Amino acid sequence: MAKLQLIHMNKSYTNGETVVALKDVSLSFREHEFVSILGPSGCGKTTMLNLIGGLDRYDSGDLIINGVSTKEFKDADWDAYRNQSIGFVFQNYNLIGHQTVLQNVEIAMTLSGVSATERRNRAIKALTDVGLAEKIDKKPNQLSGGQMQRVAIARALVNNPDIILADEPTGALDSTTSIQIMELLKEVSKERLVIMVTHNGELAKEYSSRIVQLLDGKLISDSKPMVDAKAQKVEKKKLSRTSMSFFTAAALSYKNLLTKKGRTIITSIAGSIGIIGVALVLALSTGLSDYMTRVQEDSLSGLPITISEQAQEIEFGPKRHEGNGMVHLTQIDEEGKYTDENIIYNYDKNANVIQHTNVFTQEYFDYVDQIKTVLPDDVRAVSYSQGVQANLLAKWDDSIVKFSTGNTEGTEEEGEESHHGNGLYWQEMADNDELILSLYDLIGEESRLPEKANEVLLVVDEYNRIDTAFFQKLGITSEVSSYKLTDFIGKTMLKVIPNNIFYQQDSDGLFSEVPVSEYETIYNNNEGMELTIVGVLRPKESANAIMSYLSPGFIYTTDLTNYIVEQAAQSDIAIAQKNSDKDVILNVSFTTDAAKKKALLRLGADTTPTAINIYPTDYQGKDAVKQYLDDYNTGRAEEEQMVYSDIAQEVEEAFGSIVSNHSLTLI
Ligand code: ADP
């Protein structure tokens, strides 16, 4: 029975033009023989070998293996046939350079599902058979050409195939070595079918048992044709498929990764860059929003919720007055915002705005006083701003000037500035060191927070700047554009002058400020309180300029306010003002009660606070505080309601959109 049969086999290649590589070749091979295929270059020898070895597919005809037609073979069948029945030997050996001789042989068995130990034993045996027992741990480049070809033959033999296909196995070898290889193949052919493609007719004639010649794809001679081939019965039978255990596959992959270190590293780096990129974007956007949340929580929560007596405009949405008619001023009018309705309102702005003035009552003060008891965890501090005006004299070198701390002229105008201090450079700080230090850095050596009423701080902006107007107010007229921190820290340059000294009463009972000519005398007398600058505050880098609630200039303690209130309340001018319907300085009648109240407040005769500042501990705390304040308004008439302002919320709204925009950009 023929081992292999080629029946009317045809093969052409189409690469633009069609080349017929094999034309109607019919040929049968015996179980054991050494067949040499000869022919000039391009006659189709390699093509035939590739078709026999299942490396390529014939166009028409058939290849019959052990009596089985391959017409219906699937890829898996071809794989099984190649792996189990064929051993290949090539002209250029096809050894893996970075693996040892032993590994090169073992690798042929990785697809046959053999255990590692058996693989090793069989590889050693195959290498011993080809005379290379000594060289198993060498790398291919340490071997001669003949030795490398022996390794290739050992590798071809190790799976114990029925057929050895050799393509010009001596093509790259000298004649002596070629002879050794031919002898080896001849030996092999005693038990197997060896089909060899060669140019070397002489060697072929000497060593092979049969010579087949091709020319232009056609079989032209066969020295020992197989005659009874046609009698063979062709059956359809499948070969068992190739198997590789999971561990073999894993080990092979691992070994492969290790041996291709360079490529593995580059692939890893390239892969990592992609992964890192994605991770980076995610980390950045998460980090950014975390950062913003932290900034909001840390810094924004430091800003107080303020309830002041100042008039405010409150705008409400289109639906506010519909329904029960009860207006809740402090609750944000969410209804009607971002509507999906198909609507555009034509609205009268004035009709949608309420002018509201908070009127402080004892009831409200009591209500706010309880906030620290009701919400102990949510409130850091409650402070009250006083309308009392400090009389200050400032000394710089030899000049002494009045440092005005309030808008004494148009008393009606006084408002916004008076407790936020913008433009006045004279501001009370929250009675909460922790809060101050969470928003501001103390800069300059010796800089510290005030401990007593007579200690004040200087606030600069993030560039260490204060407006020129501040220096002019201090009586500094020189054109110097910068000073040293130490020109201020530790210096005493302000003095609080009690009302009784600052205001002089004339015979008509009217009061007037001391003339400028007496400033020096009263600065130097013992009464009053000298103020020492004990430190300089600058907004923290992590905080944002818009969150700094202290404006550049002086800031002073609540203790100082208490001192001023105390001495002012008992002053002659305060008592006189209380008992008069006229302004005791300007000698004009008050037009409104509010105007009189302001005058009393300014002179310390009325000690009701002008504003309440509530400092929440954190974000949640702020919500709780607002809820608490909202609750007060429930069910009250519009004019009784108390409206608070929350600077942090405006800032937060601005930031909210920044965060989402940044995240979008990053993603
Ligand atoms: P030999 O091995 O006898 O030198 P080959 O079998 O390699 O000849 O080639 C036979 C013919 O088929 C040649 O004309 C060759 O150019 C052509 N041929 C071989 N392989 C291919 C291929 N993959 N694509 C196109 N043409 C091929």
DSSP strand content: 15-25%
Class by helix and strand content?
A: alpha+beta
Number of helices: 21
User: Which small molecules are bound?
Assistant: adenosine-5'-diphosphate
Percent helix among the residues?
25-40%
Low-confidence stretches: 408-422
Query: What Rg, in angstroms, do the CA atoms define?
Result: 51 Å
Mean pLDDT: 83
Q: Based on DSSP secondary structure assignment, what is the total number of beta strands? A: 26
Cα distance spanning the termini: 71 Å
Please summarize the sheet with the most strands: 8 strands, mixed
Task: State the shape.
Answer: rod-shaped
Describe this structure in words.
The protein is α+β, with helices and mostly antiparallel strands. The protein contains 21 helices and 26 strands. The strands form 6 sheets. Strands 15, 16, 17, 18, 19, 20, 23 and 24 form an 8-stranded mixed beta sheet that branches. Strand 9 and strand 10 form a beta hairpin. The longest helix has 38 residues, at 261-298. Mean pLDDT is 83; it is low at 408-422. The structure holds adenosine-5'-diphosphate (ADP). Adenosine-5'-diphosphate (ADP) binds next to strand 1, strand 2 and helix 1.
Helices, strands, pairings?
Blueprint: E1 4-15, E2 17-29, E3 33-38, H1 45-52, E4 60-65, E5 68-69, H2 75-85, E6 86-90, H3 101-106, H4 116-129, H5 145-157, E7 163-167, H6 175-188, E8 193-197, H7 201-207, E9 210-215, E10 218-222, H8 246-259, H9 261-298, E11 305-308, E12 311-315, E13 353-357, H10 362-369, H11 371-374, E14 379-386, E15 392-396, E16 399-402, H12 416-420, E17 426-428, H13 433-439, E18 440-443, E19 455-459, H14 468-473, E20 492-496, H15 499-502, E21 503-505, E22 511-513, H16 519-524, E23 529-539, E24 553-556, H17 558-569, H18 572-578, H19 593-603, E25 609-616, H20 619-633, E26 645-646, H21 647-666
Parallel strand pairs: 3-8, 3-9, 6-7, 7-8, 17-24, 19-23
Antiparallel strand pairs: 1-2, 1-4, 4-5, 9-10, 11-25, 11-26, 12-13, 14-25, 15-16, 15-20, 18-23, 19-24, 20-23, 21-22
Helix pairs in contact: 4-5, 5-6, 9-21
The chain binds adenosine-5'-diphosphate.
Adenosine-5'-diphosphate is lined by residues 13, 15, 19, 21, 39, 41-47.
